[in-house]
Amino acid sequence: MKILVVEDEPSLRELIQRSLEKERYVVEVADSFLSGMRKLEDYTYDCILLDIMLPDGDGLSLLENIKRMGKKECVIIISAKDSLEDKVAGLDLGADDYLAKPFHIAELSARVKSVIRRHHHQGAACVEIGNVRIHTDKYQVEVEGTPLDLNKKEYDILLYFANRPGRLVDKALLAESVWGDHIDQVDNFDFVYAQIKNLRKKLSAGRASVEIKSVYKFGYKLVVE
Ligand code: CA
Fold first, then answer.
1. Which of 50, 89, 100, 191 could form a disulfide with 82 if both were Cys (CB 3.0 to 4.6 A apart)?
2. What pLDDT digit, counting tens, does each position of 165-214 carry?
3. Residue 26 alpha carbon to ligand 1 centre in Å
């Protein structure tokens, strides 16, 4: 799961980044309206944390742009302007949640978890695909009750597929979501293939009823047998 933090105050931005990285999210940051816009034009996220008062613009306009671009990211507004009008305006523009500063980092992390869960898993803490069960709150995977031991990347890849059942997955988008925005600088995606190969082996050895199939020249697809 990849999160974009748009926040101009360096100490808060770094605190949020560090805390969410500890929670196993891939975290990207932007320190201004403009850098936030650039990130949003080039990349896709699972959740955006959006400050309202930015040095070169208004976070609410950024939110308008996100919606106008047809982007599906969930958005949590984090704002010092704890006025009812801002909160209402933000929610009216389609923000999923609103958190007034100062907030406890544990609360932010709980809100992020909750909006992502609502967005991707219809509110459930558990995603099921075939006979595979992914416990997103504990980062655990089991096949018919037997735990499947996956590394962090393998887990993130499996969850990415499970959230897009039956859909063709572009390997560049998959890489960007699991490794981060910098991945578009790489020459090839062999490292993605290496992780997928190991994940396939583990799924098959664990008798999972799902399989990651390669789609020539495009990417992959998760298929339930
Ligand atoms: Ca600010």
1. 100
2. 889 999 999 999 999 999 988 888 899 999 999 999 999 999 999 999 99
3. 22
Distance from Cα 55 to the centre of ligand 1, integer Å: 7
pTM for this entry: 0.91
User: What's the 101 CA to ligand 1 centre distance in angstroms?
Assistant: 10
Judged by DSSP in three states, 202 sits in: helix
pLDDT in tens, 75-94: 999 988 667 788 888 899 99
Show Cβ contacts of residue 121 under 8 Å, excluding neighbours closer than 6 positions: 127, 136, 163
Q: Dihedrals φ, ψ of 147, to 5°? A: -60, 145
Query: Ion ligand 1 — residues with CB under 5 Å?
Result: 8, 51, 53
Peptide linkage before 55 cis (omega within 30 of 0): no
Three-state DSSP state, 42? helix
Six-digit token string for 42: 């080039």
Distance (angstroms) between ligand 1 centre and the Cα of 215 equals 44
73's tokens? 């990211």
Q: How far is CA 15 from CA 9, 20, 40, 49, 123, in A?
A: 10, 9, 22, 13, 27
Q: Give residue 84's identity as a one-letter amino acid code.
A: L
